[in-house]
Amino acid sequence: MDAIRGLMDFIDASPTAFHAVENICAALADAGWQRLEERETWQIAPGGRYYFTRNRSSVIAFRVPEAGFAHFQITASHSDSPCFKLKPGAARDAQGCAVLNVEPYGGMLMATWLDRPLSVAGRLVVSGKDGLETRLANVDRNLALIPNVPIHFNRDANKGVEWNPQVDLLPVVGAEGADILAAAAESAGAKKEDVAGSDLFLYNRDRATLWGNENEFLAAPRLDDLECAYAGLQALLEARPSKHIDMLCVFDNEEVGSGTKQGADSSLLAEALRRIALALGAAGQALEAAVAGSFMLSADNAHAVHPNHPEKYDEDNRVRMNGGVVVKFNAQQKYTSDGVSAAVFERLCERAGVPTQRFANRSDVPGGSTLGNIANSHASMNTVDIGLAQLSMHSAMECAGVKDVDAMIRAMRAFHEAEIDVRADGIIALD
Asked: Half-sphere exposure of 112 toward its Cβ, with a 13 Å CA cutoff?
């Protein structure tokens, strides 16, 4: 149960991507990893362990083998989850209450956000004696609620509702005159008048909890994709040093397409690989050769078969919570898994005693995508899309199996400790 308890604590402490990355960095620093800054020249050495952030919402960590520059074995996930983002000038008075003007971030199940305790967290840009600095903010109390219209005034409410986020989903945050920016500033140890900018989000205040007849399930906000981000962190910290460069990438903004400077569809990964090669003295075509021999696990959660609606799922490729790590396939390349990458990963899991299962959508149901194929457009290597089965994906409260996070950690640890030797195009040996 250590893995599931650790995950629950991590999720509870990570209401936004900024907090998740801060918590990942704290764990790396506690373990003796050295922080780098992108704007500085990197001084790295064989045997060293390093990490850096971009936008404080994405993080890359890597460990260099004693022999120096080599190919990369990478786990990738994302730090963001669907939610509501506060617009500028968010609070306004309405009928004796103060409400927040918010807009959806990502593909949300909007109805799940109503009638539950919410709060505000994110980052503030604060004026200081040395210029502008960013600080984490979290109004760590029940602050807001999006109230439903009573059934008496909406008799068709149980027949299906189309939500207008500009009208129906504005959170009430108090009586008229409520000052949310002041509350956020106080939580960051700042004064409202010193706040020059902000990126603030609503988050679900419900804490992660076990449930089920034998506590076999987990309910928590932001399981997609903090579950995989946490597993990747733990696997990297636990894995024995190897002959290759181990790397953890946690990107922001996957839920809105990854097209930001800190997303997978940016220069972030490619620049990290290039700078590592330069700092370790790799010459000529060494970087290109190393990337061609590298391997990535793109880890983002998967759809468990819904017990009330099995007809929504492909009858030959349904996955279940507590069934092990999911390998995801899609002919339209929404997922990057192919015969080669899936075979390598499944063989590693078999060696480690980790159960796996396979997912594919119905052919008449378009599926979502993830960051693997996007990251591959900037740094191309063998990649397999994996995840953990969950219900209620993109809900304010999601559900997963308690056994699966341990399975993912063990699979990723086995991946880091193995030597994936790409000897030629289409020929791979596992040492």
From this structure: 21
Tokens coding 23: 């918590």
Is-above-0.85 flag for pTM?
yes
Angle among Cα 357, 221, 62 to the nearest 5 degrees reads: 65
Residues 310 and 358 in one domain: yes
Q: CA-CA distance, 91 to 181, in Å (whole number)?
A: 9
Angle between helices 223-238 and 17-30 (to 10 degrees): 10
Q: Does residue 77 sit in the same domain as residue 97?
A: no
How far apart, in whole angstroms, are the C-alpha atoms of residue 75 and residue 243?
16
Residue 212 belongs to a domain? no
Give the domain CATH number at 69.
Answer: 3.40.630.10
Q: 16, 201 in Cβ contact below 8 A? A: yes
What are the structure tokens assigned to 302, written together?
């998967």
Per-residue confidence (pLDDT) for residue 130, from 0 to 100? 85
3-state secondary structure 397-419: CEEEECCHHHHHHHHHHHHHHCC
Residue ranges with strand state E in 185-287:
195-204, 209-211, 217-220, 245-251
Which of 385, 403, 52 is closest to 249 using CA atoms? 52
What CA–CA distances, in Å, run from 81 to 15, 16, 67, 204, 292? Answer: 9, 8, 38, 11, 31
Average pLDDT over residues 316-338: 95
**Which tokens in the block code for residue 314?**
């492909």
Whether residues 157 and 74 fall in one domain: no
Give a yes or no: residue 23 inside a domain.
yes
Share of the chain above pLDDT 90, in %: 91
Same-domain status, 246 and 275 = yes
Contact 183, 200 (CB under 8 A): no
Q: Place 137 in a pLDDT band, splitting at 50, 70 and 90.
A: very high
Domain of 158, in residue numbers: 83-204
Of 90-99, 217-226, 231-240, 284-293, minimum mean pLDDT range: 90-99
